[in-house]
Structures are given as structure tokens and as C-alpha cells.
Amino acid sequence: MLEVILIFLIACFGYSDYFTGKTLQTRPIVLGPLVGLALGNLEAGCIIGATLELAFMGAVGVGAALPPEVVSGSVLGTAFAIIGDKDAGMAVALGLPIAMLVMMLRNFLFIAIVPLFANKADKYAAAGDLKGVSRMHWYGGIFGMYLPLAILTTLSFYLGSNVMENVLNMIPTFIQDGLSISAGILPALGFAILLRMILNKKIVPFLFIGLILTAYLNLPVLAVAILAVCIVFIMSQTSEKQMAVGNNEMEVEDDDF
């Protein structure tokens, strides 16, 4: 029973990210170790959380398109893998379909439940009641969205992985195949959207350097990340020196006057 309560608290912690300013506590790399700690296997939680983070890396909301429900997939995928003494691959195999299924349930809440609080907030706004609008904001988020999802995640954990597998097996094969394909495309889509926003002539050379290091020199991601940090440090130091030289030259010119 204690494990169920801890899973509920972890799910609430993950969903509270929407109230704390997007601190990324919804991410698998954060929730995985917490689940592992709650279930007495921190090492497995860290490994599975990192693996799920790679799978969910592209799961970001773009416009009106909603990504897979990361919190439920991370918590349940990690928990079921640890309880069943399975590896990270099993966590991904369970986590992604669960996240896609809960995404559909979340969409239902957005369509059917949240508008009830939004309409009430409009009435308070028309009456000039700012506190009422604020209450509807909180109530709509908590009772119309995130508390139901946290309860659903906890209930799924309580019922066990076998029940969840049976529920997933009830979904038609063509829908499962579509969900699996879309989940596999999401990381590439996420990177493509990110590159479209930040890519410029200054960044392109570093993109190809990373490609060469990973594709041709077979360096692991950690080694490439450490090298990137070193490059950033060197560039920042060079920039500071250039700024210092520029300031000194300006002071010399001022002295001439």
C-alpha cells in the first residue's frame, strides 16, 4: 500500500509541473529515478528513466498538437519494468503505448471537462470577479485535468501490468500500429522542430561536427556532450577576452579627448 501512495505522490509531482512554471519535472529522466527510489531500486530507475527520456525526447507540444502523455508513460513503464524485473526495453514497450492511450483520455478531458471550468471563469470575468477567475484556473487544472490523470496512473499501477497489457491488447491492431509508428517518429519530429527554430549559419558547422563524431567516429553521446561543453567554455572565454579588449580600446580613445 505504501508503494501505491508513493506512486500517487510521484504522479502528482510530475503533473504539478504545469503549476510551477514548466520546470521539466514531467520528464522520464526525473520521474524514473523517483519511481526507482520508491520501489527500492534506484539504479534501475535511473537507467530506465534515461532510456525512456530518449524515447520521449520528441514528445513536446507544438501548437494544438498534443504529445504522448509523458508522466503516465514514465511512471508506469518504469514501475512495471522494476516490479517485473525487466530491462529498459520492456519499460519502453509498455510506456509508449500507455502514454499514447492516456493522451487520448487527456484529450477527452480537454474537450469535455476543462471547458466547464472555462465557461464558469468567463462568467466570473464578466462580473469583474478576479478571484473567481483565479479559482476556476486552479480548479480546472487540478480537478479537470491533473488529479484525474494522477489517480488513473495510480490505479493502473495498483491493478498491475497484466491488466494494463490486457487493456492495450483490446485496442485494434491497426490503431496500435499507428500509435507505435507515430511514437517512433516523435523524436525525429522534435529534433526537426528544434533545429528549425535555432538553426543558422553559426550552428550548422557544429551540427555536422556532432554527426561526424557519432556516425563516423562512433563516440558515445556522453563524450560528445562533454566535448560540446568544452567548446562552449572556450568560446565564452574568447568572447569575454574580446569584449575586454574592446572596452580597453574605447577607454584609450576617450582619454585622447
From TrEMBL:
Domain of life: Bacteria
GO biological process: phosphoenolpyruvate-dependent sugar phosphotransferase system
PROSITE patterns recorded: PTS_EIIC_TYPE_4 (PS51106)
Subcellular localization: Cell membrane
Gene Ontology CC annotation, any one: plasma membrane
Keywords recorded for this protein, A-Z: Cell membrane, Membrane, Phosphotransferase system, Sugar transport, Transmembrane, Transmembrane helix, Transport
Membrane-spanning intervals of the chain: none
Membrane topology: Multi-pass membrane protein
A Pfam family the protein falls into: EII-Sor
Protein name per the record: PTS sugar transporter
